[in-house]
Amino acid sequence: MRVIVLGGAGAVCSETTRDLVSTSTFEEIVIGELAVDRAQELARELADPRVRVVPIDAGDETALTGLLRGFDVVVNGLPFRYDLVVTRAAIAAGVSGLDLSSEDPQFALHEEAVRRGVTFIPGMGATPGITNVMARRGAEQLDRVLEIDIAFAAFRCLAPAPGLLETTLWEFTPDEEERQESYYEEGRWHPAPPLSGEQRVRFHEWIGEQSVYLVPHDEVYSLPRSFPGVRRVTVRGCFPPHVMELMGALMRGGLLSQQPVRIGGETWPAREVTRALLWAVPESRANAVWAYGLVVEVRGEKDGRPCMLRYRNRHPSPEAWGGPAAYFKNIGIPLSIGAQMLADGRIQAKGVVPPEIAVPTELFFAELARRGIWIEEERLEL
Helix, strand, or coil here: 75? Predict the structure, then answer.
């Protein structure tokens, strides 16, 4: 069996590659990278004869399709703008796979994937990803699901990588189109501006209690379709306090808007100017605590009575888990687990399917625990 990890030497998927090397039985593990030198450095560090590096150009879909042929699984760790391209290429090549985020056009490829016998799972990181499987686990315990509320705390620096800086800015951009569908309630999606819908949520001990705010995450779109009859689905999130304070100030100052500003005779979206400045300053890579917190509450009915299931993750201390790696492992490891479950047949679904439909909960949670990510379940009669 052969697996290729696109972006496999990046901040997130280097942890996917490391986990594949340490836990999988793949006969070949290929790092597909634009940054070939960085990929070769990781390969030397891993010192495993199964690992090799190939250059990729994700902008050339025909070449990417040809590259993927012959692999059993493709893991996509590229920036989210490549999600649809990689999904099309994987289906055309007849290769199953998964990635970190999702968009509706990927799911439009479902029937074509079924015809080709391909499974592709968009959104298989921490959130979306682990949170979707938490939601499914709660649904399995109930006779009827009414509400799903998800909270995350992504404790990392502002700009550990260009793609992650872009993700942060996206979550605070006031004129972002996806803000028009920030949460689901009573049969339709509703708008919400950044820093709205504040709630206090208690995460694990490395993060503690934090204020979280409505974010238009992928779970808001897939869960209502996966669990018909659900009345509400929300995702709220936060970053470390210093990042939240900075992003709030920039947003209120108009510096995260897409509105054009003129600088030195050229016109740029204000957000792009801000992005360039934030990437350039070393303060954007400073952070005190690296961790990832997830809490999912699933409310509904069991045996005719109101009931709630609450799920909370835990992981080793940032010091024990390698500082920044304590954040990235929570995203990269689920991709590795999903790739191995695709390869060995533990994932049976076909087509383009979200994690809550594709991934068996107990097996997935057991694999997370084996690597140091524990999922706690609490049942409350309401």
Answer: strand
User: How far is Cα 79 from Cα 96, in angstroms, rounded to an integer?
Assistant: 19
CA distances from 65 to 56, 68, 234 (A): 11, 5, 36
pLDDT at residue 352, as a whole number: 97
Q: Domain 130-324+372-381 in CATH: superfamily? A: Dihydrodipicolinate Reductase; domain 2 (3.30.360.10)
4 CB-side CA count, 13 A: 23
CATH of the domain spanning 2-122, picked from 3.40.605.10, 3.20.20.70, 3.90.76.10, 3.40.50.720: 3.40.50.720
Model confidence pLDDT, tens digit, residues 46-80 = 999 999 999 999 889 999 999 999 999 999 999 88
Per-residue pLDDT at 220 exceeds 80: yes
**301 bridge partner residues:** 144, 306
Q: How far apart, in whole angstroms, are the C-alpha atoms of residue 183 and residue 117?
A: 33
In this predicted structure, what is the pLDDT of residue 58? 87
Q: Which two tokens stand for residue 201?
A: 């949520």
Closest to 113 measured CA to CA, from 341, 357, 352:
352
